[in-house]
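Sample log: Serine/threonine-protein kinase PknA.
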Amino acid sequence: MTDKLLFDRLMATVRTKSELERLVGLYLDERLASITNGDNLADDIFRLIDWGEAKGRLADIHKMAAAAQQHANKDDFLGRMPTSELAVELEGSEEELVSRHKEWIEARKQAEYRKHDLHGRTLAGRFLVNKFIGAGGVGSVWSAYDTARRKMAAIKTLHYHISSVIMKDRFFRGARVMSNLNHANIVKILEPFGSEDDLSFFAMELIDGPNFESSVRQQLISAEDAMVGIIRVSKALHYAHSLGYVHRDVKPANILIDEATKEFKLTDFDLVKCDDSAGFTLTGGLGTWVYSAPEAKVAGRDADLRADIFSLGMTAVFVILGKEPPPLAAYDPAAFLETLPCSEAVRSVLEKSLELSADLRFSTAEEFAEALEIALSDKEAPGVNVEAKQALNRLPKNALLTLINIESQLEANDFNISESLAHMKAAFWEIGKTLVVINAYVWDAKGELTRSASTEERESDIPIDDTVQRRVRDEGEVLLTSPNTASSLFDGRILYLPIAESFGFSHGLVQIYKVTLQRFKPSEVAVAQRLCKALVNRAVASSSIQLARDRSLAAQTRDVMLASTFPTILGYDIACIQVKAGVYLGEYCEGIPLPSGESLFVIAEALRHYSSSLAELAFLRGFVTSFHRENVDLAAELAEFNNRFTKITDEDRFLVVLFMLIDPKLGKVTIANAGHGPPFLQRPNQRASPVGEEGIGLPLGIVEDMEYDLTEVMMQLGDKLILISDGVNEAMNSAGDMYGYDRLFDRLSHLEGSSQSICEGILSDINKFRAGAELYDDITIVVLQRES
């Protein structure tokens, strides 16, 4: 009897204890007869234990002891653990069964570490092993320093006692597949196959942070952020699916969170199904039980990308519950979801993703991600919302019509916060003859809460304590509180509602309190929520329209006012390329001829606020084009402009600027730098290197009376001087890697010809590296060559 047939029958057709005992006996006989390595069999036994726990048949699993006793002399069973000892374990109490096998797994991890300490060992000639991180059923994970990348990496090793060719193929299969994937939300493989002496390993980027499962269980991340992570991982899976790969083991433990970037990374493609047939084909149930689709539980080979969608849906259930879903969630998802504490919109998405029939689920992971994102953006406020929603339905028909009418007024007019609050106040009076005072507050860049509008001309502020601010701002909660003390949070006398800028983030709040200081009724809370949502919708729409107008106007004006032009300098070849990341280019670059015969080169970048940055760059251009003196002191000019700029601009605004004065006769280049990246000098047959790194001063606008240093360099025949904005260095691919200076220098060493062709060569290499990934920052490239 084949392994597939045995396991399929065990999972799908077992009805009685006697049949279970017979099938388990046959199953173990078959497996022990064909497999000499115990770790494979351990997976089988543990899968049976999981099955028994989920089915409520743990008592029946004890019958495995009888079958196990028949193989008491096979010491390879479960690694170094004799079958007779396993029989004793299985004969223990039902409550101890799972906990004992988990304890044994942990003991085996520690034994593996003690026996095979890799600390200080160098693997693949580049990975210097640093410390032990942890171990699983088949392997251990170590941190290591990657000397090639000069970054930390993670090394995953296969346990020494595993010699099965099948298990080795499975171990490397996931790494081989992941090495073909280049996505910001999939762990990057650095070395897919490593073998030294008796050690099998592969290397991947080190994700310094907790996994998704522990983060949710321990409430290290909010449910909103966790859902964002699921959406991003879903899009990463869609990318993998488009290349022919099905993960088949998506679960919270296989998602990592980078502590530094807060990015979510999918890992462990060990059970992957792919178009290439190299490696083995799994025939039994796949994945962790509760997260596996029905078709994956019975015949993993037949599971397609829709099995991953089921797993994504169950992972979302895990987030909502804060713990692993119960067996009912997998047996009867429809019945289970009826009781799940979530919005109807989210419930609808989960129902579709958890359909028992794969044909009824979302057809792609991208569809699931988009549907979940939409459902979450319409999320209901926690706490008072359910009761408030029910109360709203009980309002008289004329009151509902009044509410709808005022909502339409809020959403139809051009956004004005004071007028919007007046509409809200009128609604309370017209619907329930309730007299209220409404204040709107926003958090500024420093995190200070300030009032922006009120329905009262007189001072009407009621202090808002830090607890209320935090819960409204960070959690998006609707709170009913008292003005008296922070300890009486829910006595219902003042209503606070978040003004949400985007999902999971609030940049302001609305405070409503009754003139009589009576408690708010649930229906009044519901009215406030509806009105606040209409206010936000209008604000977002108005802001988007205004931003689009601002961006378009700034872009048109910028192309006229700040066109990049350069003088013709005898004996020099000059070229410039600029690429904007969006509609508007926030960088300025120009060469200006001076009366002395010298030329002033300027490259600058402003914060991207469209009309503001346009005005600042235009102010800079007006300043530098006024240089009509014979002798220009760059450091003094830069300091003078800094003082002027600091006086006229906001404290959170600044410019990064590089001045470069060129004397074409002498080949002398003088540089003054205010926070910009350095230029690079490349001499013939030499690698490019930065010029004047030590002389980079503070950006303009940070502080007055700043002194700037000068750096001088002499250009010889054949020298190239390259100026770039930080958009070159920081251009990223889909994996989140930056282009970097090393790649730039390597490319420059292979580029010859005119300055224009060199600019184009650099840009072409950047685009090849990005491979279609989004460009987040503008790019400016200037090349100056001395020819004669």
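Observation: The chain has five domains: 3-115, 118-206, 207-379, 385-546, 562-786.
Observation: The chain is about 40% helix and 20% strand.
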